[in-house]
TrEMBL record:
Protein name per its UniProtKB record: MFS transporter
Domain Major facilitator superfamily (MFS) profile, first and last residues per copy: 38-413
Transmembrane region(s): 39-63, 69-92, 104-127, 133-154, 166-188, 194-214, 235-257, 269-288, 300-319, 325-344, 356-377, 383-406
Membrane topology according to the record: Multi-pass membrane protein
Entry's Gene Ontology cellular component terms: plasma membrane
Protein localization: Cell membrane
Residues annotated as signal peptide: none
InterPro entries xref list: MFS, MFS_dom, MFS_Efflux_Transporters, MFS_trans_sf
Amino acid sequence: MENHRHVVDVEAVPEGSAGGAGNAPAPAPAGGRALPLGVYLLAFSLFAMGSAEFLLAGVLPAVAADIDVSLAAAGGLITAFAVGVVIGGPPFAVVSLRWPRRTALVLTQVIFAACVAAGLVIGSYPALLVTRFAAGLAYAGFFAIAATTAVSLVTPDRAARASGVVVSGLSLAMILGGPAGTLIGYHVGWAGGFWLVVALTLVAALAVAVAMPRTAGGPEPSVRRELRTLRRPRLWLVFAATLLSTASYMITFNYLAELLDRVTGIPDAWIALVLMLFGVGAYLGLAIGGRVSDRWPHHALVAGAAGIAVCSALIAVLARHALAVVPLVLLLGVAGFVLNPAIYGRVFTIASDAPTLAGASVVSAFQLGISLVPLPAGLALNAGASVTSVAWIGAVLAVLTIPVALAERAAGRPRPAAAARPS
């Protein structure tokens, strides 16, 4: 089914329904190379908001000391945000189904900034816990609507590329936002980085309100149709691939600092720079995946999963050799994110007639893959296994992603007509 020209999905509806007819102005011509400004505004917005997700881990000891709680309790603030992201997208997608998308985007940005600011002003642990959870809900709502909006701004043959650009905001948050906020926090106090997040989010909200093309809800948007779309088995195969692939690279990344310190023996001063290489690789992977996935989405999915498996296994085997591990961290980022545009492309192709709830659900699957990482890693480490075992778990999860992606591809092939019986 995949070849050098755009292939219409067997479950797709007539042209004009993708993303909801009437949800956006006419997309740019397919021949144009540049994506619309709105796509880049969404990427910047995701960078501003996503920085809050990576910032807290870097200043967690300072937060725990300032609000007088244990480090484990302070870690609950990370969990609260993650839970909000997991459960926030689909309900908001349903509630905002008939809203103009620009309104939904700006509203979630303002609520997110208000929640972060409220937690900083009140400053108590319960307040931070509640506001982090609420900020996660708003962040999930924005992420879900942003992905759908980006696809509606372009022609179908550039949907994966547009999704990749939007998600690249998240990788930039990983590369720049989190580390820069942490650096600011150590110089002016841990709250300084979060105030910067508030400011950037409000700037992004203003830019979206002013410069984002005016959009409106689709004709007769239907919650029933959105829910009916979620019954398609192929969507759940994509959700499963999202969860497995995300967990496969994040489980290695989350314990990479420990591995670099205890096994590889890299000096503490250099570990942060090595971790940034993962973010650089993620940005490169999104750029490559965005270009490839519109034509060959399943090739990108399988190649990305295979790359994660190989890189994870090599990190485990060569963990004592810095000259091998450092470039492998970069390549793990490339492989991990090269398949993300393909994931979004598949979701918006399969659910082209009702994409909002499906788009929100894939965001939840992405965050769930991140949130479940501590479970298998904790089981292995508590059983006495070396930290390199975590990379092996990542390799196994990546291998499991491949048959899921291939099953989704097989399910999308039209069934051949039954052979005529001989008379």
